[in-house]
């Protein structure tokens, strides 16, 4: 077993695709981590806005969460429709592009790409932030820990979908299990106590009210809470990853994810209200998260508390995985349509789109590194991208249904129309509420990506136009090329190249640049070394052309000679046959001039279409070289 | 005028060499800066050792300096002999190698190379150290200033010898002028005052005596003071840089440098004694250098004082230039003999050995950066290398004269023998006195360089043996190669490559790797696109070979096919003709797969001696492509 097979797994045959497909059990960790982990920060984000209302603010969390859950339900149902309609993978990009046209598709694509990069970076740094606040001695290593987790997630995903599913299963179910248990336990206590349970570990009292409740504040809290919905589109993008019947498995997976998420959100909101838990200022000393206070109030700060906190922390930092599952698929779809470099469309050794995966790792890593692992300020940004993609996808579905008929179509239009409307309003609300906090960056980045992708497609179209349909091969008037061999002296490498040149064409020139310390041996011995044997063999002898070099250049005179020859040599190509000595050990390469490589580069860039470069390698210490031709 | 001509000067023709040659006026700044600037730290280094003797130590500086000057005289006379005997450039390396054999030459070469790198780094950091102690606010930028000065010196030298001479003339003569004036002034005052002049700005009193004088302490002080002699060999290395008569101009230059240096050393020693100036502990607060105290005592701390200090500082930091003048010449000589990569032997556009210059810059820059611009600890090291080279050179001269006869030869043997003896003793003394302070590093580095250079020569010898004298060209049984064209689809680039392949050989194969989304168009249209026109032209049609790729690899199947063909194709080479689409703009290159480049690399490394690679470029947006063949 080779080292690469050990590290990255054996290469998978294209025909092994089915074995890599997954069911709901693995689908939930892979596509659901992002959505589920949002329960860890969504309610907290809404409650943080409500801090200024003091104890009076807590009551609003229940209606706000109900609104969020209603929105989630609309989005859920319409994504079910999308999966049904696009069993080949119906991400927002595909749906918007097919139904609303290229521009809408690219808008959705740009929004989603940004969303995924942010998801990856923010997910990891949120988890590490929680870890660091629990163990402050790790503070100086925060960036390193972030990048380490990023590397692990990237590595697991490079090993293929199946391996990733197994890897992420344990933390996901641990999280759902412990947080779910805590919430059920709390609900039971709350019901037993008539809605006013006594906390085991009492949360700190809410701060004083600093202002009165206003509609705008409630809207802002709602917008912040909507971050709980990011990641819901993940399943619809990855339908192809599921085993047959794909669409049914994907829908089942999505339904389970949403059900768990709704339960977590509802439970948290209800219990936060019941226990009177307000958010704490994250910048104040002794800060504690809402979930920490809540689990403490329900279960006390014993072993269970620590297991629950650890699982939240794990899932937060692994939530980045959803981006890793979807971003490469998204890039594949975009690249297949010609809007991204074509290498994004290729599947690597483990059948994942390795290039997109590496691009995501690089971008998220850069963000984490640039922000020193503290990406709090990015959190407000990424709901915009997600909701813009939602909206375009919903509108796309409305147009999709319009082309069908029957009651199913009408139900579709109704559902997706409602979804489109609600999510569009949410985009506007989130954008307005978060514009100055940084959402303007997104408002600039999305158009930038949009135009970049259009330019890439235009470029590919031009290339295709230029090289396409050249007509049949024309083999009339085939003339052998003029062959030019740059030659430093008479040695085994140049002899081999010259003989090879003679097999290509009867028209061979050897070009020699005369340098300051030239001993003239090449010119002196040319008759004996080349002309005499050519005469004996009845072949045309290669001509020796000497070129002066007053400025000691050794490459430019050859290039000039070749270009001059190419200009006069109508209807034929010029083949420059370069003898090259290849070292057996890499470190010995530094001991030789890089003239062959430089000459190749010069001819490549300046040669135009009329010069072909031929490398004839001569291997040191290799018997094969000498036995050949 | 192009940008590069503006920055680095117009390229100089090899025949313009004479115009770049210099006389003594430019020779003193170029080859003398190191020697002259040693007056700035040599006496101080000796006095620093004497600190422990308190006021009683000062008296020893005069006899120590007399010993140093005597040694200097011996070295001077024997270098005059060397220049006379080796008018083509008689560095220690050349002299030792020609007279004592390869090993002695390489020992001298290694010692000198280390010496020059240290000279460059220490010179700059000493100057910047003085600057920073005068203006402490610059402290945080010390490394940056060091690297900036290094870059300036490297740049000026890249512009050629003549330009460098002009650039370094002003600071050199300013230094000699002001320090010389100060010393003459002091001597006059001292004579007028009967040997006990009154200081204008009194130096701080010497510290208390901590121990009694011992022979070993005096020897150590002498060894430290010998750093004043580094740089003396510079002229002998660069004889070729002088205009005709080279040897006479070089000797005159050396004589002037030594005369000035002797005057400076003697004056400093005498006046330090007369004014009772002891060195201060460089690590103590309020540290002041010996020269600063001396000039202050003579002239007071007015404008003259500051001009003198500035010129000392300038010359110290520019003393690195001597290394830049000599190191590339030294590397050239070594490379010409095959002990260093051959590129060190080539002269760049301005007739300087650019590669050696850049190597020196890189190594000195690394030292400066690694030590944060504080290279005090390196100072003790570099006298060892210099004196080892002196000794080998002197011994070499003794053997040189032994082969001559007549009185001149006897005088030579006597003088160089004396020089050899004295400098050999000095090596031992310096090595013993400085061994634990770091000279052991030099004792390790010199042998390391020695063996590395031997290995390089051995490698070149092997290569030469392998490729040399291959006998005359053999043009019997010329058979056209088997030509293989990797082809992705039927487009203009592959059509051009295929037609070119047909001009090279009648035996052409097109290899196509079938990937997952292959539409089969290539196979379907092969008869129409290729076979029919070939039949019409009466030519043999290229065969289409389809290769499966279950793991989606696109390069390896082609490589495997080529290698298999090469194995079965006795007595012929295989020419792989690679169609390559060349973008008109560099940034567009990222939009295309690098498969052509990767395939080339694979074939280059694995192809052995039987595969030649042919690039047929197809230029986008370029009419030349389409008009050709």
What are the defining features of this structure?
homodimer; 629 residues; mainly alpha; five-stranded parallel β-sheet; 5 strands; 6% strand
Question: What does this 3D model show about the protein?
Answer:
The structure is a homodimer of 629-residue chains. By secondary structure, chain A is mainly alpha-helical. In chain A, 62% of the residues lie in helices and 6% in strands. Chain A contains 22 helices and five strands. Chain A has a five-stranded parallel β-sheet with strand order 3-2-1-4-5, sandwiched between helices. In chain A, helix 3 (42-50) runs antiparallel to helix 9 (215-225) and helix 16 crosses helix 17. The longest helix of chain A is centred in the last third of the chain and has 61 residues, at 407-467. Chain A is elongated and about 115 Å long.
Structural Rg of chain A = 33 Å
**SS field, number of helical segments of chain A:** 22
Tell me the β content of chain A.
Answer: 5-15%
The biggest beta sheet of chain A, please? 5 strands, parallel
- The termini of chain A sit apart by 38 Å
What is the element string of chain A, with H for helices and E for strands? HHHHHHHHHHHHHHHHHEHEHEHEHEH
Quick structural gist:
The structure is a homodimer of 629-residue chains. Chain A contains 22 helices and five strands. Strand 5 of chain A pairs antiparallel with strand 5 of chain B, so a sheet runs across the interface.
């Amino acid at each position: 077993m080779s080292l690469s097979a050990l590290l990255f797994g054996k290469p998978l045959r294209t025909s092994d695709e089915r074995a890599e497909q997954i069911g709901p059990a693995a689908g939930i960790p892979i596509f659901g981590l992002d959505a589920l982990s949002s329960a860890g920060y969504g309610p907290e984000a809404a409650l943080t806005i409500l801090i200024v209302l003091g104890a009076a603010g807590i009551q609003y969390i229940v209606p706000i969460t109900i609104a969020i859950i209603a929105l989630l339900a609309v989005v859920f149902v319409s994504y079910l429709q999308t999966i049904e309609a696009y069993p080949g993978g119906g991400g927002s990009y595909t749906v918007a592009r097919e139904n609303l046209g290229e521009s809408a598709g690219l808008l959705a694509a740009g929004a989603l790409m940004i969303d995924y990069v942010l998801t990856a970076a923010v997910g990891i740094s949120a988890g590490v932030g929680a870890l660091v606040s629990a163990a402050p001695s790790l503070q100086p290593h925060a960036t390193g820990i972030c990048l380490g987790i990023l590397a692990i997630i990237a590595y697991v995903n490079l090993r293929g979908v199946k391996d990733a599913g197994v890897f992420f299963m344990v933390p996901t179910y641990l999280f759902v299990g412990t947080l779910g248990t805590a919430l059920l336990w709390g609900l039971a206590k709350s019901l037993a106590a008539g809605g006013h349970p006594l906390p085991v570990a009492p949360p700190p009292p809410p701060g004083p009210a600093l202002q009165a409740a206003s509609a705008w504040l409630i809207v802002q809290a709602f917008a912040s809470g909507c971050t709980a919905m990011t990641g819901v589109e993940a399943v619809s993008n990855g339908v192809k990853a599921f085993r047959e019947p794909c669409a049914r498995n994907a829908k089942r997976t999505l339904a389970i994810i949403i059900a768990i998420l709704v339960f977590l959100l509802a439970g948290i909101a209800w219990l936060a209200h019941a226990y009177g838990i307000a958010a704490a200022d994250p910048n104040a000393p002794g800060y504690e998260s809402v979930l920490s206070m809540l689990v403490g109030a329900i279960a006390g700060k014993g072993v269970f508390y620590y297991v629950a906190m650890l699982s939240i922390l794990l899932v937060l930092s692994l939530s980045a995985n959803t981006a890793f599952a979807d971003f490469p698929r998204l890039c594949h779809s975009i690249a297949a349509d010609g809007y991204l470099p074509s290498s994004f469309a290729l599947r690597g050794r483990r059948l994942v789109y390795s290039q997109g995966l590496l691009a995501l790792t690089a971008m998220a890593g850069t963000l984490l590194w640039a922000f020193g692992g503290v990406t709090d300020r990015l959190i407000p940004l990424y709901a915009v991208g997600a909701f813009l993609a939602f909206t375009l996808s919903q509108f796309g579905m409305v147009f999709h249904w319009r082309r069908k008929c029957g009651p199913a179509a009408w139900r579709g239009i109704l559902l997706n129309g409602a979804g489109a409307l609600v999510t569009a309003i949410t985009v506007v609300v989130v954008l307005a509420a978060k514009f100055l906090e940084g959402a303007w960056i997104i408002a600039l980045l999305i158009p930038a990506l949009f135009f970049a992708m259009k330019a890439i497609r235009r470029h590919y179209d031009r290339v295709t136009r230029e090289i396409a349909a050249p007509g049949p091969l024309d083999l009339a008037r085939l003339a052998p090329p003029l062959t030019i061999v740059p030659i430093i002296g008479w040695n085994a490498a140049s002899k081999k190249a010259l003989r090879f040149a003679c097999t290509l064409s009867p028209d061979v020139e050897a070009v020699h640049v005369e340098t300051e310390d030239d001993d003239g041996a090449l010119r002196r011995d040319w008759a004996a070394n080349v002309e005499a044997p050519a005469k004996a063999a009845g072949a045309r002898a290669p001509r020796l052309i000497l070129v002066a070099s007053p400025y000691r250049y050794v490459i430019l005179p050859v290039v000039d000679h070749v270009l001059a020859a190419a200009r006069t040599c109508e209807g034929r190509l010029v083949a420059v046959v370069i003898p090259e000595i290849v070292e057996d050990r890499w470190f010995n390469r530094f001991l030789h001039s890089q003239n062959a490589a430089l000459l190749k580069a010069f001819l490549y860039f300046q040669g135009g279409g009329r010069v072909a470069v031929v490398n004839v390698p001569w291997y040191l210490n290799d018997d094969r070289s000498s036995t050949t031709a």
